[in-house]
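Weekly structure sync - notes
Attendees: PM, LS, DV (DV joined late)
Agenda: review two folding runs queued last week.

Item 1: First target. Sequence and structure tokens pasted below for the record.
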Amino acid sequence: MNLPQLTAYLGSLVPADYDPLASKVKSLKTKIKSEERPYAVFLTFDLERRVIRIEDPIPYSQDTLYEYGYFGNNDAATLQSYLVREVESLHYLLTSVWNDLQLALRKQHMEDSQLSKWIAKMEAAELIVTGNKKGSGKVRLDRFQLPDSLEGKSVILQKENQTICVGSQEFKYEAFVRAMLEHENKKDRFVLVIPAVFEQGIRIVLSQHEDYRTLVRKINNLELPNEREEALHSSEQRVCHVCQQLKPSVKSKYTTQFSRTGINKVFTTTTINSARYKADGYNYDDAYAICLECYRHLVNGEALIEKRFKGSIARESAFFLPEGLFEPFDYDSIGRIKDQLDFAFQCKAAEEWMKMVEADAEWMQRPYFAIHIIVYRTDGVSFTVLETIEDVPALRFMQVMKTVRQVSGQLKPFLRGMSLGNIYRMVPIRETKKGEQVDVGRVLSIYKALFSGHRIHSETLFNYAAEALDKGMQQLSKEKIDNYRNMGLEQYHPDKADLFIQRIAMQYLAFIQVLHQLAILDKPVFTPSFGTEERDMQSYDSVEAVEQFLDRQGFSSEAKALFYLGCMIHRVGVEQYKKGHKTKPVLKKIHFQGMLASEVYRLYYDVLDKLRQYDAFDRYSEVLIEGFHRHCGTLKEKEWPLSDHANVFYIMSGYAYQVGILANHKGKKQDGDQTESDAAPAMTP
């Protein structure tokens, strides 16, 4: 994947009449809850009355960002010249913005503009103070027009803790805006501040004035044709890093103006190893200089990708970028394919996705394109790439989804559909108190291996399965779920632990089968018996059905023995549940961190004792015991071929099988609201 070229290509698709400033518009960082109503407010500098007002809230929407030009905060090293700010960044408007805006106008030779004259009038009216250095200047806070309840009190900005003191009262920025408006409804949020001046009875919104828009275009090298300076076409020519053409005005400094939180930062680098050293320092123009045209395409492409090609994987932000292998896509086709890729990670069953793409000509008639996925995280200040999955052929993507559909279909009724999103819900992901996922990388690595064809160690999957059961059961035993929320534990809390076990065990069984069929496991795990065919079984709780299930899955003899042991443990659990032990104490005898062969043998004897204790040595139990011995042989010590975590997985597979039978006897969905049954299903020999 050549990310700069792909981004620039997308940017080149932008219509000729597209407003270049639209590519610089940012999204709000402020999180707004569904029940809250957001508003923007005006910060008005009244030149006639020589006062400053916060006034006239207007309903906020995404269109507000474009209408008034919200470009976020300027990078820390540059002049803070952007006007529209989030309420959380109000201190910029109360300190350096007006000074830096004036300096930016002078730097761009716009000191005679109307915008510059308004700043001079604001200072003449003693509403602001400017200086000659970056970061100087301030707003005269004593000029704020306070409401009656705060009249006559001093106003002091405490920038270090982002508060404003009015007299003895201390306000956070949004609370200050609320107090100035005397607005008490807490469901109304104030998220955006729009500066304006009031002159001759008219309020002029400064961010909408053409002088300001021209300035922003100039400082971002997005000038319109009539604004471009001929000096840009210098005699020196270089080869552009993106288009590979020899052109004038090819510079590396353009890359410093990319957003710090956008996709263009993925390829921007300042490492000295990639630049030639000269007497005046490192010459970065040799390494990654780009021409002005490509710079503009990259800026437009970045905005386009953010708006049209952004999705999520494993609850992390992701860009999905399709790329034609033999011919370029049109814009609409690219966007539609992206939406389908995003849906592949969100749908509940691969069957849903396959039905959708089978009706799409781009997938079925022109499947010769590649898919690039960039999973990233941004805090609004920096951009961190968590994983890249490059050059995945569309045919490979379809092969994976078809295999998932086929395997999950073979596990019905124990598994009611499976898709890519289930992989994320299978691996326990720990969160910090702020909700940041700590070890999501291991899920992303599985996705990468799945689509890139890299080997996956089977023991890693057994480890994850055991860990998922361990962490999940620990959380379900608590009064409140406090971590590993990616596994969807809330729906099983507090008394549906068996259904959680069934889902995890069956999904891992399905996923291992998928990897087995895709030939990317490090070694064979299952060996289906030759000639094994699936027959329509009227009852899944018969010996014949169990044996057919095990043969079809390709379990080894030892795995089959452990499967039967899991069925026996479920039998004990049902008896315990009938006697009022809803947590099924027998499950505590399973060491989810891993079990040695000797521990498995002890568990078997413990289960036998429990069956005697509950007077459950009936024909059902005898069939399970006979199945265990038939596949395990005598119980004397021998070299055991399965790992500690694989032992746990196969035991819990048997337990999950019995839970599935119970759920299907009740005729309800796997993840529904059912509770434990009072009776065990009758197994017929």
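Item 2: Second target, run right after the first with the same settings.
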Amino acid sequence: MATPGVADAAVTFDDEERPARRLTGPVDHGVAAVAFAVALLVLWQVFRPLSQGSQFYLIVFLAGVLPLVFLAYRSGLRLPDRLTSRLPARLAPRVPDPDGPSPSRRDLPTVADWLLAGLALVVCLYPVVPLTFGNAGGGYDAFLDRQGLLAPVDVVMGALLLVLLVEACRRTTGWILPVVCLVFLGYGYYGGLLPQTWAVAHAGLDFGQIVDAFYNSASGFYGTPLDVAATYIVLFTIYGAVLDLSGAGRFFVDLSVAAFRRSRSAAGRTAVASGFLLGTVSGSGTATAVSVGAVTWPILRRAGYPAEHAGGMLAAAGVGAILSPPTLGAAAFIVAEYLEVSYLTVLGWAVIPTVLYYLGILLAVEIDARRFKVRPVEVAAGSAWRLLARFGYHFSSLVVIVVLLAVGVSATRAVVYATGLAVVLSFLDRRSWLTPRRLFAALAAGVRGVLPVVAVCAAAGIITATTTKTGLGAQFASLLVRGAQALADNPTVVLALTVVFAAIALSLLGLAVPVTASFIIGWVIIGPALLALGVPAPAAAMFVFYYSVLSEVTPPTALAAVGAAAITGGRTVPTMWQALKYALPAFLAPIAFVLTGPGEYLLGRGAPLEVLWAGLVGCLGVAALAVATGGWLLGVGPARRFERVLAALAGLLLLYLHPVSIAVGVALIAIAVLTALARRRRTAKADPAGPAGTTSEESADQGGTDPAGPADRDSTAGGGEPAAEGKVTGSRGQESGSRGQESGSRGQEFGSSSGEEAK
């Protein structure tokens, strides 16, 4: 990045993958060449679809990418020492450090990896190879003709593909999702042995029927999830790689730094704005958090943010990338396919929730800046207007996507045209010219970046096919609704309880599996329960989508927080809790989608006036929740426990979006504000100097000034330098430590801040 004094990140993550191998030499070139060929196939399919149909294309696509997973990702398995000591060195598995090998160390596939890659190629291409094997084989049409009555060779090939997909999923995401897939597989096979009085029992499936459902049906491996990954997601991943190599990522962060360089809360605002802008092209929560953190963490540290608070802010801002148009996360494309609507429609549904999400984070940033007396930091950056004039063209491809979608162009063609525009515009900046070599690298990187998503989407076919074959979705939905009805008879209360149960289930599910898999499972299991209670399909789908995304900031497996902690050096678990605090208001907004009829207005589904008032009430509700979690009333001062409780109740009532609840919520906010103002006046009369943290409201800081509390005046009077000169000043309860020219300060939540960090 161009920001002076900022080091690049040494660690990179993606929200749905474990760190991949750092391939070198001929293997790296070979993998890149295959990935480039797959990219060309994807682009060809957009304009000249294969005549054999969509499933034929998916078979060929999977045959191109699945072998790459075994070459690009480590197995992570380690044999007992007594066995590996007897193997030749070239056959012994390499088990690098968890953080990956050093750049100088070779990290190449083992013999087992090459064998698995070759087997994956054979098994994937088997349905389309025009060779006869007894009563099996014979090409694609013959394979489809055997649907429901597979030959023994078909069953063997399908079983091998099942094992390979589970292993590919394990390599890219860890153990949890493969275990979930195997549980569904076991349920499909052994569910017929359950007592038939149980709601989840079914007639039973033999192994051939299960493989047929996975291997030769539209709901299995080649179902909607893989179709979305092979058409939409891979194209947007390529677009993101091209846009990044054209300098857009650097421009977005530099613009954020230049725009907020003078205010006290500039460091936090920069991190949040960078996360939003970079997220519009990333669609990856953890990758965005790490990329933004590499640039903004030094600024946050100089402002006085401890590592855990800064990491939580970065994680929350990064996760917003999966919610930010025009490149939402992978699950958003699946929403469009499941509901059979255009991707532009899903983008429209996401606008107001995205505003509410980032509004909550920005309010939390402003509250922390005042509550903890964050210091203003002067960053050497150019004029924001000059940056816009020189590099503002990077926004044009984003605008082109939306415009083309609006005029009826398909999402696949729109993103291809936007990618071409980004390539052409890259030649406006000599540092970022997309020469043929760099364009080759961008296309290959785009395909390699989608490998984990492909593994997840293909493996998710185990879940969707099992659910379809056994009717598990309807059975589980019935259990969920009956559980709520056992606690209440009122339809409104039943819906509220069902929504709460669904939110808890989705949050727990998201702890174990990636966002895409979490949405797929949540939609086929929990979606029917919401639909059965009369919730509109768009509201139910977006409810499941948002809770799947928010699992990225939910302890104890908040991947975005883990990535941010790796950049800041903070403790991982406290960073997770801070991320949850910043994103907490967003956990309640999706409930508003499904709880009442006006909740749909937050998705832009309604008359303009209805959407407007619902959006304004939603913003007020999020602001109230930010006061409750942050403990500060902007424009007033600190909020005590009484005001925070009132603000929390007000936020809940406002998000219910009913006229009576809105009126009560506004009244509670007014009471909280009046109570805080009255206490402030009493405090001012008792102590004209004003206690530290309450004078001047600390909000008029646009010019870079830092209103001094008593601690600041004491330290300055005692010969210390003011905080604006870069020294740390403040108070610690009633202690004052003087060490030369420096006074130490620690807020109750703020951790520690050393003199070296301040300098």
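Discussion on item 2: Confidence is low (pLDDT under 50) at residues 1-17, 90-105, 691-759.
Action: LS to circulate a short write-up before next sync.
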